[in-house]
Design a protein that fits this description.
Layout (H helix, E strand, L loop, with lengths): L1 E5 L3 H12 L3 E5 L12 E7 L6 E7 L2 E3 L10 E4 L6 H11 L4 E5 L7 H4 L7 E5 L2 E5 L5 E5 L2 E5 L7 H12 L3 E4 L3 H22 L2 H5 L2 H20 L17 H14 L1 H8 L4 H17 L5 H4 L2 H5 L7
Parallel strand pairs: 1-2, 1-6, 2-5, 3-10, 6-7, 7-8, 11-12
Antiparallel strand pairs: 3-4, 8-11, 9-10
């Protein structure tokens, strides 16, 4: 498959790298003048959770790049992974240059699809969610982790031919593909859970401290549970999603389950611990809080974390 990745952010780099390894022709579209930043490739240290045994290795991703696009290109897929609040900024580009390619939005969503539909037809795009992450060190090394699964789904829940084609592409890259029949609601549930976890991480002093503390994980469960009530108000059947179940049992039992899981699942832990974009985490938390306030929902546990989010005791999570 011929794939165009918008930018060279953390997620686009990780998945561009593994997709290129499995026979796909991957090109990264960069703004004018940015290609020279990557002319020697991107150095990575990747904790790779694919396969029977997790392995960590260093590699240099010699990415293929372009700073020009035309509407008559021959890409099959355009992969877009940006911070959720930056998505609108790339929509004019997609409107003008998507052409016949399918667009895969590969990031979180809380605001729905209305703004996207002013630029693209629903038939032009589908959604997915990566299970990877990382951050750059001072030595400009991408320190990252990757799990062996992703989410994919059409907005209408159809198991379409293009969804099946894309599923095969990711499976060839040794990823398990969890096809969601209601990807929008899954994205909202995931976003809500993350917002509570993020707030608790700010209170704990960082992701490492959160994942090492049963009481702080209880904070995360109580806050996320309140955020999930917003999803319910939006018409989401929250209990239908496996990811939400831990947040509706006893907070102590849920906290212990998460604590144990993070002891074993080293890539998942590293994804959280290496996420260094504090501003992104603050915006994600505030977006959910603002929605709760607009709906006049009581969120005492969630709101109690605001002071820690606004005045974090650290520079990186």
């Amino acid at each position: 498959m011929k794939i165009l990745v918008i930018g060279a952010g953390v997620i686009g780099t990780i998945y561009g790298y593994i997709l290129a390894q499995t026979g796909n022709e991957v090109t990264h579209y960069l703004r004018a003048g940015k290609s020279k930043l990557f002319e020697n490739g991107i150095r990575m240290r990747l904790l790779d959770g694919r396969g029977k045994k997790t392995k960590e290795y260093e590699a240099v991703y010699s990415l293929k790049m372009t700073e020009e696009l035309s509407a008559d290109h021959d890409y099959d897929l355009i992969l877009v992974s940006v911070r959720h609040y930056q998505l609108e900024s790339v929509l004019p580009l997609l409107r003008d240059f998507a052409g016949k390619a399918d667009v895969l939005f590969f990031n979180g969503n809380w605001d729905g699809m209305e703004i996207i539909n002013t630029y693209l037809l629903p038939s032009q795009y589908l959604w997915g969610f990566p299970v990877a992450g990382g951050g750059y060190t001072k030595e400009k090394l991408l320190n990252a982790a990757l799990l062996d699964e992703i989410r994919l789904g059409e907005l209408d829940g159809e198991i379409s031919p293009r969804l099946l084609r894309l599923k095969k592409v990711f499976e060839k890259a040794h990823l398990k593909v969890d096809v969601q029949t209601n990807i929008k609601h899954w994205l909202w549930v995931h976003f809500a859970i993350n917002s509570g976890v993020i707030g608790a991480a700010f209170k704990a002093g960082g992701a490492s401290q959160l994942l090492s503390s049963i009481p702080r994980l209880c904070d995360a469960i109580l806050a996320s549970r309140e955020a999930l009530e917003i999803c319910k108000r939006r018409g989401v059947n929250v209990q239908a999603f496996e990811d939400a179940k831990a947040f509706y049992q006893s907070p102590l039992l849920g906290a212990i389950a998460i604590w144990l899981m993070m002891k074993v699942n080293k890539p998942a832990r590293k994804i959280m611990e290496t996420h260094s974009a504090v501003d992104e985490l603050q915006i994600l938390y505030r977006d959910v809080l603002n929605t709760g306030e607009m709906l006049k929902m009581p969120m005492p546990n969630f709101r109690s974390l605001l002071k820690y989010v606004e005045n974090p005791p650290f520079q990186e999570c």
